[in-house]
Write the structure tokens for this entry.
Amino acid sequence: GDSVTQMEGPVTLSEEAFLTINCTYTATGYPSLFWYVQYPGEGLQLLLKATKADDKGSNKGFEATYRKETTSFHLEKGSVQVSDSAVYFCALSGVAGGFKTIFGAGTRLFVKA
Amino acid sequence: KAGVTQTPRYLIKTRGQQVTLSCSPISGHRSVSWYQQTPGQGLQFLFEYFSETQRNKGNFPGRFSGRQFSNSRSEMNVSTLELGDSALYLCASSFGQGTTNEKLFFGSGTQLSVL
């Protein structure tokens, strides 16, 4: 079935380090891909999205490119800040059996000052 | 514009009891989805409602049920609670038009603890 696989966390980085969180997916058809972020004590909020192959989503310095050939949507940021500490979820929607968004297990990021 | 509101914020129940969680979507949103979040499993899809009709359902036992009212508010019920039902239950709303790039707006969740 359709699924999303993320790298396991936690990921611990120093401030200003480069961030990559890997995400791969399995899906029938042509899904849309998303990254959501969850700050402590809050629900998830959309960080960025891409709706077709080779699209690049970006927001708040984060970027991810929809790679159909490798079925991947890796999240990157050039210089992380302490305030980026959160749990990041990769997700897909628009697949067969629609009207649902499928999430990965989440990757917790800790950024040290 | 008010966000997605979930009540209560915290719940403590004992095994065998039942529980009802409530979700009020953003005004104008007609779709409500429910997810169970646990540390080991991430977010697991429970079900989605649109205009009072369940359009999709995840792989959860029949003890988990839901409904949606004409004002788009939704409730989720869990009967005969088990210890493994302890989790954060998240509700998300959207316009529900079925476009593939439609984003979800989440509430802060209800933290359920089963003792």
The interface with chain B takes residues 30-32, 34, 36, 41-46, 49, 51, 89, 93-94, 97-106 of chain A (CB under 8 Å).
